[in-house]
Write a structure and sequence with these properties.
Strand order of the largest sheet of chain B: 1-2
Helix content of chain B: over 70%
Radius of gyration of chain A: 18 Å
Radius of gyration of chain B: 21 Å
Structural class of chain B: mainly alpha
Oligomer: heterodimer
Order of helices and strands of chain B: HHHHHHEHHHHEHHHHH
Number of strands of chain A: 2
Order of helices and strands of chain A: HHHHEEHHHHHHH
Strand order of the largest sheet of chain A: 1-2
Largest sheet of chain A: 2 strands, antiparallel
């Protein structure tokens, strides 16, 4: 019994981080209909920001988190202006953008690997290897802090989307781009801002990931399928769905890892992605699949 | 006037008209060029009498391997418009099937290649039945997930050596001739792949695939069995990729997950087709030549695979943004395609 509680706890602790990693992806897909395969590479960039902040100046990843968010938001604006704004008008848009984001991911990976080599890195603040004990169940401090921070950030995002005027415009654009435009929403600005927010979330996730997982530039390929599985299972574009899926799959993966070994726990995400795409392409909370 | 025409007359008139169209197109085509190219490439190993040109042979062989794979990918990705980022799965399946048979039974992979292609094609057919139910981005994502699943599978399958793979015996030929069997195998496969690509493009099947890529719903309502067409296209493209994988394993003298199941290989296939012009016969071949030359240039001058990845991504992004039709497609649209590149 204690073992089972332990597994659930570990799964839930990681679930929050996965949720934050996936929520930016979900936001971008909802508003822009861009399946951003570069998202994991952007998270990786955020992780490097936190890593170098820690290595060079001894700054805690939580201090570097806002810095990474700002740097990546700027990257997001740049990417949007350079690449995606002009593509938004082309036919076969969604398919082209998948390949484009894929190309962007390669550029980022190549740039990171050129600058920092493919060495495994991890940020190691004191709490990363420490744990709380409740009876015989231990909770790794790093994962707990990261999970809670993720939930706080996602909560702030939800509040912003729910109660601010601009968030209202973002939600309107997600639901129906044309109708929102007809009602006077500047959809291009909404696209730009939500893309920047999504990428900033990648930066936040990256600084948390930097001490939760070890990372190296080409690892983002593994994350692509992991994040896609969350977003697809949750229903593309639904942030709530992404969060639920993240917790669900994270716990399942923890169980698979416990019973069959760590190699197979990642397989959970890939298989889930595969099965969901084929059985229920709209996912748990998605609307009818217009592109599946 | 029209009332006296019978159906036969109308059909005959249409057939005659179609023949004039074909004749007009034939005039714009230069059949001699691919044949000359084939002859030149077949004669190329004679250089070995004059000195050591192993590196040149390797480059041509490598390019030919990609011509086979990119042409295969093109049947699904170019004609039918289903972009797969997971075709290296079939490269691996072909490579492992033939490689294991070669290691255990000693049958040359060159003989096994068509069989390995069939195995890959069969697997492609079965995977296609599942994944081709979704379209667009979802299909692309499912193909990525497939690579991850298959890679974990191969890395943990002890019979095929897990992550360490299996090493294969090298052939006993003297060093200047050692590459030749593979060279000719790839040359034949490339010729067959291009010929098949041409035949498919000019068949009812190819027309159906192109209709699917333009508008699947309309294609279906026009009476095309879209599901069967798509899955068959998937199987044929997997066949060619698997065949290339079979010989590639023996050529490298080892099979290992990280030579087949790396993302760069499937990206290369996609990129060659996009750069050359997807949906054309000559496009993938032209793209293969350019990308291999380019990769080689980068690795030789800068010597870092990280920069190679960066540059490949950059080219892909630029090609997608500014030449989505590719070189052959763009030139053809502007009616400036030189005759020797018109293989359609």
């Amino acid at each position: 019994m204690a073992a089972i509680i332990q597994i659930v706890v570990l799964g839930l602790a990681l679930g929050g981080v996965y949720a934050l990693m996936g929520s930016g992806l979900s936001l971008i897909f909802g508003v822009m209909r861009i399946v951003n395969l570069a998202h994991p590479a952007l998270i990786m960039s955020g992780a490097y920001v936190a890593y170098w902040g820690f290595r060079l100046w001894g700054l805690d990843p939580f201090v570097m988190l806002p810095v990474a968010m700002v740097i990546l938001a700027a990257t997001g604006v740049l990417l949007y202006k350079l690449v995606f704004e002009r593509e938004a008008k082309s036919a076969r848009y969604s398919e082209m953008t998948v390949l484009l984001t894929f190309a962007v991911a390669m550029v980022l990976e190549g740039a990171l690997a050129t600058a920092f080599t493919n060495t495994q890195r991890v940020t190691s603040p004191g709490y990363a290897t420490d744990a709380f004990f409740i009876g015989s169940v231990f909770i790794p401090k790093g994962q707990l802090y990261a999970g809670i921070t993720s939930l706080v950030i996602i909560g702030l995002l939800a509040l912003f989307l729910k109660f601010s005027r601009f968030g209202y415009a973002i939600r309107a654009t997600t639901q129906n781009r044309e109708a929102a435009e007809l009602l006077g929403v500047n959809v291009n600005l909404v696209g730009l801002v939500s893309f920047a927010i999504g990428v900033a979330l990648a930066g936040a996730a990256g600084s948390l990931v930097s001490f939760v997982f070890s990372f190296f530039p080409s690892k983002h390929w593994e994350w692509i399928a992991v994040l896609m599985s969350l977003v697809v299972l949750g229903g593309m574009g639904s942030i709530l769905g992404t969060v639920v899926a993240a917790y669900l799959l994270s716990v399942v993966a923890a169980f698979v890892g416990f019973f069959f070994g760590a190699t197979w726990s990642t397989l959970t995400f890939y298989l889930a992605l595969f099965v969901v795409l084929l059985v229920r392409p709209q996912g748990l909370f998605g609307e009818k699949p217009e592109l599946a | 006037m029209a009332s006296t025409d019978t159906t036969d007359d109308i059909l005959k008139a249409r057939q005659a008209y179609n023949e004039t169209l074909t004749a007009a197109q034939d005039k714009r085509r230069a059949t001699w060029f691919p044949l000359l190219l084939l002859a030149l490439l077949a004669a190329l190993p004679a250089l070995q009498f004059a000195g050591n040109y192993n590196y040149l042979l390797h480059l041509v062989l490598y390019t030919l391997c990609y011509v086979v794979m990119a042409s295969g990918w093109n049947i699904l990705g170019g004609y039918a418009g289903y972009i797969s980022l997971g075709h290296n799965v079939f490269f691996a399946v072909g490579g492992y099937f033939a490689g294991m048979m070669f290691a255990r039974l000693g049958i040359s992979t060159i003989i096994l290649a068509p069989l390995a292609g069939l195995v890959a094609g069969l697997l492609g057919y079965m995977i296609g039945l599942i994944t081709l139910r979704v379209r667009g981005p979802s299909f692309i994502i499912s193909s990525l997930a497939l690579v991850m699943i298959v890679r974990i599978g191969f890395e943990n399958w002890h019979f095929v050596g897990g992550a360490a793979g299996v090493s294969l015996p090298a052939n006993g030929l003297p060093v200047q001739w050692a590459k030749l069997p593979y060279y000719y195998a790839f040359l034949v496969m490339a010729a067959v792949a291009l010929w098949a690509s041409y035949r498919i493009r000019h068949s009812k099947f190819g027309l159906g695939l192109r209709a699917i890529s333009k508008d699947e719903v309309k294609a279906e309502s026009a009476g095309i069995d879209t599901r069967f067409y798509k899955v068959l296209a998937f199987a044929i493209s997997a066949f060619f990729v698997g065949m290339a994988g079979a010989v590639w394993g023996e050529y490298l003298t080892y099979i290992r997950p990280n030579i087949f199941l790396v993302i760069l290989i499937s990206v290369n296939m996609v990129l060659m087709c996009i750069l050359g012009g997807k949906g054309t016969v000559a496009g993938p071949a032209l793209g293969a030549v350019l990308i291999v030359a380019f990769n080689e240039f980068f690795v030789a001058t800068l010597g870092a695979s990280a920069i190679n990845i960066l540059a490949t991504g950059l080219i892909m992004a630029l090609a997608l943004m500014f030449f989505p039709l590719g070189i052959v497609g763009t030139l053809a649209r502007h009616r400036k395609l030189p005759r020797f590149l018109n293989w359609d």
